[in-house]
Design a protein that fits this description.
By secondary structure, chain A is mainly α. Chain A contains seven helices and no strands. Chain B is mainly α. Chain B contains 19 helices and three strands. Classes of the chains: A mainly alpha (160), B mainly alpha (444).
């Protein structure tokens, strides 16, 4: 039975959540012109890969696997929804590209005054991603098993 | 003292309580004699140390003036570290089991060989009883290495701990041991990217992709019919999950069949068929689809003639069960998933063959010693050593055991259930496997 053990199932959300919070801290350091260490640089690089992964994913039968944290469809969809909730009125891929670019500037120490607003927005985005992952971990300890027969609910009307 | 600092202190203290308590449990287990899970203890200890280091770092950051975003991120990260510590407590229960679960030498010997073939790494098994009637396994390196990587710490070197869960009532049911090989298959898929290999090597992927896109539209429409509004990405993600889970199950079935031989067919029948409906789930293909794939593979691997000769009635019954279909009308997207997994069948077989290489159990290998083993079983002599002085392949012993019991039942399907119920016979087979394991180790 491919019943993913709870430990394995929690690993993705915890990992994605930790990454999101580290990105917030790293961007804050960059905004204050503080030197980024290995940990901060790695967080920003992973965040860029994360945004590129979301941006480039089509409805592919193989699925997204650009970043380890996005290896599960669940974590990928959480991230996708977080961005849709955060910037509902902005064209999805354009927004991701803007955020990825400002992260690149943070990494290179080339942030300008007019980047501040987007940096703050990026921090709020990743705080939202982290919050959703934290909710998923705390919900995990409470919830019952997801229904593997949910597809029959989708089919309900055909038989009613 | 500001609110953030107070909250950070509370969260850090809560987390430290969790790490401290778990650390005590790990130490008490690690210091005991004859314990399973030494490497698991090392993994847990490494994670606890890494969590404590990150706690100290975040507390240190909290002493400086913080922006609102920084304060929120630190608080959230402290909560995630608490969640991580609680997740490690889940692993702690396996350490508790370490004292109580009888170690089955025969099982571990058999699975050691299976792990070498499927996972291709050194392993340390941890067995745990499950009150649910379910077999499962989990290679623990992946979840632990992810957490340690996130906390900038290395994974301790050594064998990979593998957790084996089995139903409490089946501790000594040696004839069901091949089911564990299926479970190890899930870890092999993750470790070696086998699912991706299946799609990448499928010759008509473009057509399959097109059919998938059409099925996504069907999934979205069906959801809308019952008031669920899904974006294309959400529908694609949902359908992809179902398809990937089904492919994984067929991959695992193939790995178990090719490694263990037809013993897996009988073990799977004994385990799955009693409570199975022809209806699939969102995580598993229907049992009839799975059985059909196994029977087809037995034909391709040239086991079928021997089985039909020995057990014509049982094989005919299995063919009938495999041909059964659900009376419910499946929605289009489920029909796509069924059709796609059937189309992928041959590719799944070749990916598994390529992965197992020389570890596939061939009919020719069985026939070399099957008569000798059968004769020993018939005369209630432990088939622990062949005339050549060598130990028999445990796969040959298990298959001979199954064939013996099914012949005794006069080739009736009921014989599958009767074989599993015969605890005395299984004790006999288990002792044989233990003795042959000792012989094999002595000869090394």
């Amino acid at each position: 039975m491919n019943e993913r053990q709870p430990l394995e199932e929690l690993a993705g959300p915890i990992s994605m959540g930790l990454l999101a919070e580290e990105v917030v801290l790293a961007v804050g350091m960059a905004m204050r012109d503080e030197e980024l260490g290995h940990r901060e640089r790695r967080a920003i690089e992973h965040a860029q890969a994360f945004l590129r992964g979301l941006s480039s994913t089509t409805n592919d039968i193989i699925g997204p696997a650009v970043l380890r944290q996005m290896d599960s469809d669940q974590t990928y969809m959480d991230a996708f929804r977080a961005i849709k909730l955060h910037a509902p009125d902005q064209p999805f891929r354009e927004y991701l590209e803007k955020v990825e670019q400002v992260l690149g500037k943070a990494l290179e120490g080339k942030l300008e005054t007019n980047d501040q607003s987007l940096c703050l927005d990026a921090q709020r985005l990743f705080l939202r991603v982290g919050e959703i992952q934290l909710a998923r971990t705390s919900g995990f300890f409470e919830r019952s098993k997801e229904d593997p027969f949910s597809w029959t609910r989708i089919n309900k009307k055909q038989h009613s | 003292m500001d609110t953030h600092k107070q909250e950070a202190a509370f969260l850090a203290r809560s987390c430290r309580r969790g790490t401290s308590e778990l650390r005590s449990r790990v130490h008490s287990v690690r210091d005991a004699d004859d314990v399973q899970g030494v490497q698991l203890c090392a993994y847990i200890s490494a994670c606890l140390d890494a969590i404590d280091r990150r706690l100290a770092d975040l507390e240190d950051r909290s002493t400086a003036p913080l922006s609102e975003s920084d304060a929120a991120a630190i608080t959230s990260e402290l909560r995630l570290l608490n969640a991580a510590t609680r997740s490690l407590h889940l692993a702690g229960k396996w350490l508790k089991e370490a004292h109580h679960v009888p170690t089955d030498v025969a099982l571990l010997f058999f699975l050691d060989k299976a792990a070498a073939a499927l996972l291709q790494v050194d392993v340390e098994f941890i067995t745990a009883r499950d009150d649910r009637y379910m077999f499962s396994s989990l290679a623990l390196d992946r979840p632990f290495s992810e957490l340690l990587e996130d906390l900038n710490s290395p994974l301790p070197e050594g064998p990979t701990p593998i957790l084996l869960n089995f139903p409490t009532s089946e501790i000594h049911t040696v004839l069901l041991h091949p089911v564990f090989v299926h479970e190890l298959g899930h870890d092999a898929i993750a470790k070696h990217g086998l699912r991706k290999a299946v799609f990448s090597s499928y010759p008509d992927l473009d057509r399959l992709q097109k059919d998938f896109s059409d099925a996504v539209a069907s999934y979205t429409a069906a959801a809308a019919d019952v008031g669920e509004s899904l974006s294309e990405e959400e529908a694609g993600s949902g359908l992809r999950s179902i398809l990937h889970d089904w492919v994984d199950e067929l991959l695992c079935d193939q790995m178990a069949l090719l490694f263990a031989g037809p013993s897996y067919l009988f073990a799977a029948a004994g385990f799955l068929l009693p409570a199975a409906a022809p209806l699939p789930s969102g995580t598993h293909p229907s049992v009839s689809l799975r059985l059909g794939a196994l029977l087809q593979s037995l034909g391709a691997t040239k086991w079928r003639p021997m089985l039909e000769s020995a057990l014509p009635n049982t094989m005919e019954w299995l063919d009938t069960v495999a041909a059964r279909r659900s009376t419910l009308e499946w929605p289009e997207f489920m029909k796509f998933v069924a059709s796609a997994t059937e189309s992928l069948g041959e590719t799944i077989g070749s990916v598994v063959s390529g992965h197992l290489k020389g570890a596939t159990y061939e009919p020719s290998a069985f026939s070399e010693s099957s008569n000798e083993i059968s004769l020993m079983i018939k005369h209630q002599v432990l088939p622990a050593q062949l005339d050549s002085g060598r130990p028999p392949d445990p796969r040959g012993v298990l298959l001979s055991a199954w064939l013996r019991k099914l012949e005794e039942a006069e080739d009736s399907p009921e014989g599958i259930a009767a074989a599993i119920a015969d605890s005395d016979f299984q004790e006999f087979i288990s002792q044989s496997l233990e003795m042959s394991c000792i012989l094999a180790r002595w000869r090394q």
